[in-house]
Amino acid sequence: MRYNLLCLLIFLLLCFDMRAQSSIEYLGIDHGLSNDFVTDIYQDRDGFLWFGTFNGLNRFDGYEFKIFKNNPLANKSLPDNRITDILEDQTGNLYVATKGGLGFFDMDRNHFTRIDLVRGGAEVQPIDFSIHQLEKDQDGQLFATSGKAGLLVIKKTGKDLTAHTVPLYISGKVSDQAYSVSSICKTFDGRLMLMIHGVGLAMYDRKNNGIQVLVQGDFNATLMTASSDGGIWFSNGWSVTHFDCHANAFQYYGLENGLSNKRIVNLYFGQDRKIWVCTDGDGIQKINMDTKKIEKNTGFDEKKLAGNAVVAIYEDTQGRKWLGTIRGGVNVIDPQKGKFQLVKHHYQDNQTSARDFISVLEQADHDHIWVGTDGSGLLKWNIKQKVFVPYPNSSRLLSERAFVTGLIQDDHHQLWIGTYDSGIFKLDMTSGQIKSYTCYYPQTEYVNAASWRLFKDSRKRIWASTLGGGEVYLFDVREDQFKPLNLPIYDVLTFFEEREDILWMGSWSELIRLDLQTRQFKTYAVGTPVRFIKQADRHHLWIGTEGGGLRYFNIATGQSKIYTEKEGLPSNTLLNALKDDFGNLWISTYHGLSKFDTKTRLFQNFYKSDGLQSNQFNYNAALKLSDGQLVFGGIRGFNLFHSRDLLVHAVFPPLKLTQLQINNKPYGSDKHYGTDPLNEVSKLTIPYSQAVLSFSFAALDYSFSDRIKYAYFLEGWDKDWNYVGKQRAAYYSHLKEGIYTLRIKSTDANGNWNSSERTILIQILPPWWRTGWAYAGYGMAVVAALYLYFLYVRHRALLLTKLKTAEFERDKENELTEKKVTFFTHIVHEIRTPLTLIINPIKELLKDNKDQITDYEELQDVYRHSKRLLNLVDKLLIFRKSEGNFDELSLVHLDIVRLVREVFLCFRQIAHAQNISYSLETDIESYPCYGDLEKLEICFFNLLQNALKYTQDGGMVTVHLNRTVTGIRIEISDSGKGTPTLLKEDIFKPFQRDFSSSNTVKEGFGIGLFLVKKFVEIHQGEISYHPNADRGMTFCVDLPQHAILNDEDHILEVSNSAFSSRETMGLNDPVMAEKADRKNSHYVEVSDRLIPIEREIILLVDDHADIRNYIYKLFQDRFHVVQAENGEQAIAILQKIEPHIIISDIMMEGGTGIDLCHKIKKSNQWSHIPLILLTASSSSEIKLKGIEGGADDYITKPFDKDMLVARVDNLIQNRNRLHEYFHSHITLQSNDHKIPVEYKEFLEKVIQAVEAHLLEEDFTVKVLAETMGMSHSNLYRQIKAISGKSANEFIRYIRLRRAAQLLITTKANVNESAYQVGFRDVKHFRQQFTKLFGCTPSEYRKRYPHLKKSYALDGLLTH
């Protein structure tokens, strides 16, 4: 059994290894390197590292590689991708030697310039052969070695760089033979030593600019270096030779001296003053300068190199070693790393093992550590031998699969082991015997096997905590068992002893302080799991929480100051903590390890890149050894380290720009922005249109670049610093003109900000329109503009003075003209009133038989000339209207041919009287279209009237109608005198008449043709004229059909337009007018069934006594006529009597008829009374105002008396018909009256509304109006108009109507019927019923029983 156990432990030893964190870091193609065959390594003066490979040149800034390669199509690219050497001159220019030539990397770091070879002092040829090495002498002169051109010195010729072969001196003479330089090196005193193939060892003579041979021989050395003692070391690839320049002696190193038999690929003199001999396949050997012996110890594990053929070595100022290998890329040996000793199971990096999941640690003795794992039991580690060792153990559980959570070793060589799933064990380290201990839930027999923490206090007592609601247990030595504390303290995660008998514990959300003597405890709410408790000072504790950061806890007050990620913690989830010998607190987290300086309160964080097992640690896996070493365990093993080794004073790395783009173009592509190297740029001047900037930067820390943080601030644009963490770029666009300062800063590896900043002054030039010259130009332009404005104002003032004078004169003239026209128009209006009193009496006389009238013919002349006078008056009124908005069309359906024929016939009698040949010629029977009948009639009337007026007796007037392409043409020709030449352009202007050619003055005002032209044009037609061949004129009217045919939206149904226009223009003779008036009067006889009333009353309102008297005579036989001179008198009369109709003039003193109309129609008392307006004005605007005011009709003076009588009769009869219909409907009589549908529907709706509220005694007119959704005034007006009754009377009639129905259709008595319709006073009900129906209720039921059947048919029968 023991043998098997021993074999198992030996197997575990073989499976585990211990290693310090590998101090060798690999950089290769996986990290962005162009090729893993690295031929050369160089660091420029800015701090960037350059790697030459067999596939391009690489620049490294600690984060990423920037690659430069050859482009066969670009002459400014790298000469060849196979790099052999890299070197920088004294001015910072970089030279790159390749297998295909030599390239100079321009200052802008973007382009290569190829260097040509000058032979014989004149011949220039490109270098297309291999350049082996580059070197500088003590003066900084650059040299290149080659196999074809020997040693080349690089010189600047004008603006170009050229290479020249250095002459070789043999025995004091210049050799005329070409030579090949196989290797070169510079001694510590600045001399250049060369190995010339087939010649020997030589030296460059700076004074003579030639090569002097020191030792002749057939040396075939391709590798060469110099040591600090002045010695020269060279190799042919298989052995090493040392040449002592002082003793002029050689010393050889070969196999017999212990040198490897592998091919030598590099010689290097290191900072350790040893010659590094690098082989291809056998690693590195060193030759000790003091002992002259070969050593194999390189100071690092060569097995960890990615390649065992090192061909390039570079040691930087911070002690890092950069090794370039043939097949393994770049290997970095960093002395600042590898301070964390890592112990882990020997698996591949991408594999895990349960043995690496470290759960708890405990020191066994000075040389051993107990290691508890999660699932692989208990292990024992030998610190000195750095291996796992076996230990006596009789339990397979502990050695293979236990989840160990607690370890305590007492002073009796007993190891207490807590497990999460199997309880607590005690291991006797001498015999290996295991004893198990059980923790029971208090007062039960249930076992809690979830042991979490074991703790030993100052009195050597063993404490244990359990999870899952478990208590705290204390080991009783006498009874040899764990006993519960029997206090309500559960799920303790950690213990801490402040002093004897004062114990602190942390649980899932609380901090507990327990006094063991008094057994009193106090809890503090934390809110997150408490994972560790450490003493800070006498009055404070450090409390580590899982998720809540670090708390600086005041014991007295219970208050805490919290430190989180914001203050520098790598994570707010803290797991465990240890104090080192310097008072620092080392805290393990889920994201690395943090060192907290309790004095400065600063954090320094470490991660996997620093050598940690991983970034994730475990809760209980923390241990401080007796020698001061700290041990932390995680999920990939555990780390051991001395804190003093990690107290590194980090330096601030140089902050450099890695890229600058202006307007998305790299810096250097445009020399207008500067020619300085990128990291020497201190000022940029950029045009406004290209102010788009992007910066990339890096702090060149090649050890801890992942710890560096950055911030930038553009003064003049940003409000404050932009702290961007690890972001290394800044971008600005659309910068305004001005001066800005870009400030960039970084931290060191410890997170301290560097006070030294990288600054660049940036000037954004304004656009040309905002430059100083532009503003000067603007100023001059403003001055010029002000001067021009001054001239303009002065000139304008003069013009305004002249204009005002002219306007004043024109206004005075217009005012005088307007007064004349207004006066004339007023006179015309005044003429219409006496014309009314003249025409109508004469017309009455002419109606009688002419035999009964003396001088009948003279009376006809009087009538005719009165109508002619009216015609002239109306022409003036039409002209007056045409100056306003008379250009609106009232479209109706009409026939142009018929209209022209009717107008033509009106003048037939006049033409016959003057013996004028008067004819109408047309091939068109009809021409239907839409037009304004009145305006077209005026046009044709004026044209025919003018033709007849200016045609002498015996002349000729012809009207011709014919179709055109676009419509119809009406031509009116005459044989008159024509139009004088001087008036041809003005005949269509108003008031133009011919007074030149005849002494005979024709009647008229010269406005006829003006109206014709205006009315034709608003019909989108044209009027033209031309003289006839023999005599007279022809006027042509062209009316387009499309212009007036399709405008149906504006067609009006005007019934009497033709009549009114023709009457206005005097086209009807008295007899025809009489017939027409009788035909259009639409007089309807009053029905015999009208309810008999007294004589109707007419209220006549006019300020003209003659008009009042005339109208009084018209209606005195049939009406009672009440007269009023103005509106005020009319209102006073209305308050006393209620007329059946009102006739009012519009123009009156003391208020217009329209105002009177508004007052009447707004009154609830009078709004139902019909009202007719009379006026001498034919303005449509006056008509519109009258209709809007509520007028029922509108008659223009002079009016026809029969027309006035007919319209009065119609209005009164319409009102009487409504009242009769209402009375019949209410009294339930047969009703054949025809009334408008809207009145009928309104009446039925109101009756229904009243009947729905018959039983409501408080049902009023207001309630009815709300029910109908109408205002009180509108409802009153409608009811009064239909019924002639007030609203209250209307409601009472509806109630009585319903009572009559109840009496016929039900058996209810009179009282019941009265109550059902809302009457509470039966006597009052009987009176009102008798007044309405002409009989008492009882008589009504006896008289009309036959109505029950008709009520049933009408749906009035009550059930």
UniProtKB/TrEMBL annotation:
Q: HTH araC/xylS-type domain location, by residue?
A: 1244-1343
Q: What is its EC number?
A: 2.7.13.3
Q: Which SMART domains does the protein's record reference? A: HATPase_c, HisKA, HTH_ARAC, REC
Give start and end of each Histidine kinase domain.
826-1043
> Hey, what's the signal peptide range on this chain?
1-20
* InterPro entries according to UniProt: CheY-like_superfamily (IPR011006), HATPase_C_sf (IPR036890), HATPase_dom (IPR003594), His_kinase_dom (IPR005467), HisK_dim/P_dom (IPR003661), HisK_dim/P_sf (IPR036097), Homeodomain-like_sf (IPR009057), HTH_AraC (IPR018060)
Its recorded name reads: histidine kinase
Q: Which organism is it from?
A: Sphingobacterium kitahiroshimense
